[in-house]
């Protein structure tokens, strides 16, 4: 049996989270709105209407191009893509064809050890072919013998981004989507929720003998609506193609549709003849010019990219990859972490531990965003410092997290108000220790006859007496001395 | 002479002086429509002999809303409120513009039942300026023609000067309604000459503005990169009044120009001395390819039309303008072939939306599937011209032919634009203010004469179409009459945004010939009323 390599390219449609649609003033987001409630003559293609381009679309698309390190073209053009379908009211889609908004770019996708057959993890360099702006179509659905059309989605702005055929496994494809989704949310241009359809992905899959550089006939997978489905659909398609070739058959250029419920791919159509969309320049719109001034304005607050930040957290703060990965999953969290590290001034790993063990759980369980936290990065740093200085012990520190969050008060103020400061006064602890010894003659006897493990019990009694405020180490040494 | 036979400028003055009411002016037009228009255009109509004696400019007359508007103008004037620069002036609208709550048919069966929920931008500007809409006038189906005969709404409009002749097209209803006094002004569209040619045939003034000067929002598109809404009027002064109202940037049309709009009425009386008016041999002949060999042949435009241009030039010379002869304009002969390709690619795409799904005609026959719904609805709904244009547009934009036809036509268009730039370059060899040409190679032809021969009909547009390619303005105005008593139009072409100059030159010609014998003529049809 020959060995095969898989070649995968992904075509993603990203719904931009602009306020209004791309060519009219209708609200762009129609999630949970009644059908045909966000429509107007322009987006429903009534006779005589004209599109007017929404500049916010260009701004968000330029942010994405920058995030992908793609080259924004100073002038790009809109074209008509002509075809008939009931959800396309003009009979053509306004898109970009030969002169798209941006070309080139790449994403260096970390593939984790778990997805690496060698078990080490590696980076997959995925090149971007092009990135263009277009309008979305509506939706149709069948209701009994009737066919219904909902035009709400008509004219919602999309960016179509196409990769080069650089991915080699289903896991890599899934990782690419995970990283893309992270990036889209990071730069704030899309909700990037696959279930809601604001991030859509088609996969082009082919196989070839290992060692070959040729591209073999590919199939196109459509209708996957989660990252897991994409991974599973690609795996199944790779298996099918290998079985076909091993069985003496030939892979044909099909378009396949993922059936989510059945977990199988179904053939939609043969693609032997490409559809001719008769592209030509959209005469109703001017060329899209992105001047260097405008571009500068758009990118003025461009953030550090998530994968760059992840690497920097490892390099600059010495975080393990695991920590860096989790802390940069979301931009707000990574900002929180960094704010806390700066305020803290000590070992960043210590901040990471507190964040990952405790703060992250609070965020998740209480459904908060880092920026909403009353337990600010500065307060978290202060709290850790209080523990470090022995002012409070670890248990008190952890208990205080939620109290700071609930009250919004400075940790030091809470310690003060509630008298939580650790009792480190030797004399005070000595008094309590003596009291514990006097009250428990049997245990003292046992300890003195050699049962040294009772020391823990004695310390526990002291802690109970002091309501946990005593420094356990100090108590231990005093007890040893008295006994 | 009735109120509706006066000029818009004069009626405006009388209205403001309280000598006449807006309602009286509107009634005058409605009476005229009743007297001369005959049966309005309708679907599946079989013509009778009698239809040849009427104008048939209208598809829809809107007397009720017109009277209501006129009364509102009278109320405003009585109350001393600002009633707008076009207060009380009746106008007609080519039925290719959407107007809220009126049928907007584009003269096609496929839109016969379409009532628009919104009003086109230039129509809205007219209404906002106080003009009174008396109705919507006929045209070639989707503006595809030069005679109005291709309308799905029959009887098609006739030429008021001779009702056995066509009014021209595609703004034939516009020109006929203005010439017959059914409206003072009309809003038309010009994609290859569709305002200027019918204006010439009907003896009225018609202007194709600079592309982007007047908003296309609400105009049911033919060739989106060529279409220009513009005025049809009986004089330069009336056209100027209308241009000042409809021109200007529109936030709903991204292709409108951010260029200030002058008051076109203010510049009409400027001095002509020192102006440079060009004549070009390319516009005194029609060049056309032999359909079999592909070789180009040339035919001079008739003597009568050439003489009109020369006489008009002589008048301009007498007024102090300089006449520059032999301006080459070498790419004029490619205007029609390039137009054939570009306009049809855009038209085919623009017609995609008429699919029987959302609005307009849907086949009554049972269909097996979606594809058959499209096929039958479009098959029944479109007339011959849309079908021909869809076929050709689809062919020349197909991936394997696009380079050979469409891309090449776009390059030709650039060359045509260059001809204009050279002629009007203020530092160039010719430094023209305007180019003077015949509007059409012939005067109005008889009904059914060339209809159906779409190639011949298209080549008749050779003198007007290049301005659409170049995006530059042009105006046709009445020169006089031919031997058969039909109006002859001459055309002035200018550089971008030179509408003021074209109107000024037209006005100067009108003033210079104000006492000419031919100006006293009226269409015979109007003598009855």
The helix/strand class of chain A is alpha+beta
- Give the helices and strands of chain B as they follow along the chain: HHEHEHEHEHEEHEEEHEHHHHEHHEEHH
Q: State the assembly state of the protein chains.
A: heterodimer
Instruction: Tell me the fraction of residues in β-strands of chain A, as a range.
Output: 15-25%
Helix content of chain A: 25-40%
Q: What's the shape of chain A?
A: elongated
Biggest interface, which chains? Answer: A-B, 28 and 44 residues
**Strand sequence of the main sheet of chain B, in spatial order?**
1-3-2-4-6-5-12-13-11-7-10
What proportion strand of chain B? 5-15%
Unreliably modeled segments of chain B: none
SS-based structural class of chain B? Answer: alpha/beta
User: Number of DSSP helices of chain A?
Assistant: 15
* Largest sheet data of chain A: 10 strands, mixed
Number of helices of chain B: 16
Shape of chain B: globular
Radius of gyration of chain B: 22 Å
Instruction: Please report the distance between the alpha carbons of the first and last residues of chain B.
Output: 9 Å
Cα-atom Rg of chain A, whole angstroms?
A: 31 Å
A few lines on this structure:
With 483 residues, chain A is of the alpha+beta class. Helices cover 39% and strands 20% of the residues of chain A. Chain A contains 15 helices and 17 strands.
Describe the structure.
The complex is a heterodimer of chains A (483) and B (529). Chain A has helices spanning 55-67, 170-186, 227-246, 292-298, 306-317, 321-327, 331-344, 348-365, 377-388, 394-407, 411-418, 426-439, 441-448, 454-465, 472-482, and strands at residues 4-15, 71-72, 75-76, 79-82, 92-95, 102-103, 106-111, 122-135, 139-143, 146-150, 157-163, 199-209, 219-224, 254-259, 264-270, 280-281, 288-289. Chain A is α+β, with helices and mostly antiparallel strands. Chain A folds into three domains: 4-296, no CATH class; 311-418, no CATH class; 426-482, Arc Repressor Mutant, subunit A (Orthogonal Bundle), CATH 1.10.10.410. The longest helix of chain A has 20 residues, at 227-246. The model of chain A has no long low-confidence stretch (mean pLDDT 93). Chain B has a domain at 340-405. The longest helix of chain B has 22 residues, at 403-424. Chain A binds chain B through residues 41, 44-53, 80, 82, 84, 86, 89-92, 147, 149, 276, 278, 280, 283-286, and chain B through 97-98, 104, 106, 111, 114, 116-118, 120, 216-221, 223-225, 251-255, 345-346, 348-349, 351-355, 357-359, 370, 374, 394, 397-399, 402, 406.
């Amino acid at each position: 049996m020959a060995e095969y390599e898989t070649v995968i390219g992904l075509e993603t449609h990203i719904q931009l989270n602009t306020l209004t649609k791309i060519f009219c003033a209708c609200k762009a987001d129609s999630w949970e709105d009644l059908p045909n409630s966000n429509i107007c003559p322009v987006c429903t293609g009534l006779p005589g209407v004209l599109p007017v381009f929404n500049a916010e679309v260009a701004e968000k698309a330029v942010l994405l191009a920058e995030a992908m390190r793609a080259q924004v073209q100073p002038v790009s053009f809109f074209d008509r893509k002509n075809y008939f379908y009931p959800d396309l009211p003009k009979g053509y889609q306004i898109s970009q064809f030969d002169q798209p908004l941006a070309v080139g770019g790449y994403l260096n996708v970390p593939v984790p050890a778990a997805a690496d057959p060698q078990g080490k993890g590696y980076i997959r360099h995925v090149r971007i072919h092009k990135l263009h702006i277009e309008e979305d179509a509506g939706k149709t659905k069948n209701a009994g013998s009737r066919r219904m059309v909902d035009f709400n989605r008509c004219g919602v702005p999309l960016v179509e981004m196409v990769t080069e055929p650089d991915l080699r496994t289903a896991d890599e494809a899934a990782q690419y989507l995970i990283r893309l989704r992270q990036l889209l949310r990071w730069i704030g241009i899309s909700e990037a929720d696959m279930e809601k359809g604001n991030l859509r992905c088609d996969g082009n899959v082919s196989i070839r003998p290992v060692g070959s550089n040729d591209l073999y006939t590919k199939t196109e997978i459509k209708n996957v609506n989660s990252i897991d489905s994409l991974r599973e659909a690609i795996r199944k398609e790779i298996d099918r193609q290998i079985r076909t070739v091993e069985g003496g058959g030939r892979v044909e250029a099909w378009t396949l549709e993922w059936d989510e419920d059945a977990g199988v791919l179904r053939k939609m159509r043969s693609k032997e003849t490409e559809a001719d969309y008769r592209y030509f320049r959209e005469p109703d719109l001017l060329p899209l010019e992105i001047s260097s001034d405008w571009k500068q304005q758009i990118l003025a607050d461009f953030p550090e990219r998530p994968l760059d930040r992840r690497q920097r957290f490892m390099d600059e703060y010495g975080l393990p990859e695991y920590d860096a990965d989790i802390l940069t999953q979301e931009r707000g969290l990574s900002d929180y972490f960094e704010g806390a590290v700066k305020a803290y001034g000590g070992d960043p790993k210590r901040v990471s531990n507190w964040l990952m063990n405790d703060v992250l759980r609070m965020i998740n369980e209480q459904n908060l965003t880092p920026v909403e936290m009353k337990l600010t990065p500065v307060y978290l740093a202060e709290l850790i410092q209080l523990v470090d200085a022995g002012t409070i012990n670890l248990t008190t520190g952890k208990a205080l997290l939620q109290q700071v969050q609930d009250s919004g008060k400075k940790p030091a103020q809470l310690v003060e108000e509630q008298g939580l400061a650790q009792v480190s006064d030797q004399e005070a602890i000595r008094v309590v220790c003596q009291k514990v010894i006097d009250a428990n003659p049997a245990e003292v006897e046992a300890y003195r006859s050699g049962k040294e493990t009772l020391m823990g019990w004695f310390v526990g009694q002291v802690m109970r007496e002091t309501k946990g405020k005593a420094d356990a180490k100090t108590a231990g040494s005093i007890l040893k001395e008295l006994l | 002479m009735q109120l509706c036979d006066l000029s818009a400028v004069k009626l405006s003055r009388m209205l403001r002086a309280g000598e006449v009411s807006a309602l009286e002016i509107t009634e005058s037009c409605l009476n005229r429509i009743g007297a001369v228009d005959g049966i309005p255009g309708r679907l599946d109509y079989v013509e009778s002999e009698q239809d040849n004696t009427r104008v048939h400019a209208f598809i829809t007359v809107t007397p009720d809303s017109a009277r209501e508007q006129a009364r509102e103008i009278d109320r405003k004037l009585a109350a001393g409120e600002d009633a707008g620069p076009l207060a009380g002036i009746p106008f007609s609208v080519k039925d290719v513009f959407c107007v809220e709550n009126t049928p907007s048919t584009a003269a096609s069966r496929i839109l016969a039942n379409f009532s628009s929920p919104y009003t086109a931008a230039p129509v809205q500007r007219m209404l906002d300026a106080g003009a009174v809409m008396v109705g919507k006038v006929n045209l070639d189906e989707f503006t595809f023609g030069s005679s109005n005969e291709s309308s799905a709404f029959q009887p098609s409009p006739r030429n008021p000067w001779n009702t056995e002749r066509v009014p021209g097209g595609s703004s034939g209803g516009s020109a006929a309604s203005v010439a017959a006094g059914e409206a003072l002004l009309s809003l038309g569209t010009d994609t290859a000459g569709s305002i200027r040619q019918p204006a010439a045939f009907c003896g009225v003034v018609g202007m194709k503005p600079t592309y982007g000067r007047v908003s296309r929002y609400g105009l049911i598109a033919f060739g989106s990169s060529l279409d220009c809404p513009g005025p049809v009027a009986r004089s330069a002064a009336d056209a100027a009044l209308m241009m000042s109202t409809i021109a200007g940037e529109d936030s709903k049309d991204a292709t409108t120009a951010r260029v200030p709009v002058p008051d076109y009425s203010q510049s009409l009386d400027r001095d002509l001395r020192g102006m440079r008016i060009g004549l070009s041999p390319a516009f005194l002949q029609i060049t056309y390819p032999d359909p079999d060999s592909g070789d180009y042949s040339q035919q001079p435009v008739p003597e009568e039309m050439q003489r009109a241009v020369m006489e008009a030039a002589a008048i301009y010379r007498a007024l102090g303008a300089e006449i520059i002869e032999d301006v080459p304009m070498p790419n004029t002969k490619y205007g029609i072939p390039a137009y054939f390709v570009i306009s049809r690619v855009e038209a085919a795409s623009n017609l995609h939306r008429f699919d029987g799904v959302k609005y307009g005609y849907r086949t009554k026959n049972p269909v097996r599937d979606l594809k058959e719904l499209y096929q039958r609805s479009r098959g029944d709904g479109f007339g011959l011209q849309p079908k021909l244009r869809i076929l050709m547009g689809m062919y020349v934009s197909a991936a394997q032919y696009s380079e050979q036809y469409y891309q090449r036509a776009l390059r030709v268009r650039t060359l045509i634009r260059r001809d204009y730039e050279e002629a009007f370059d203020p530092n160039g060899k010719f430094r023209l203010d305007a180019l003077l040409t015949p509007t059409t190679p012939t005067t109005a032809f008889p009904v059914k004469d060339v209809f159906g021969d779409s190639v011949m009909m298209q080549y008749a547009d050779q003198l007007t179409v290049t301005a659409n390619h170049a995006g530059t303005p042009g105006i046709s105005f009445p020169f006089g009459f031919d031997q058969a008593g039909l109006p002859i139009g001459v055309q002035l072409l200018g550089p971008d945004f030179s509408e003021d100059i074209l109107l000024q030159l037209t006005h100067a010609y009108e003033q210079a010939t104000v006492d000419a014998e031919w100006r006293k003529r009226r269409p015979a049809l109007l003598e009855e009323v």
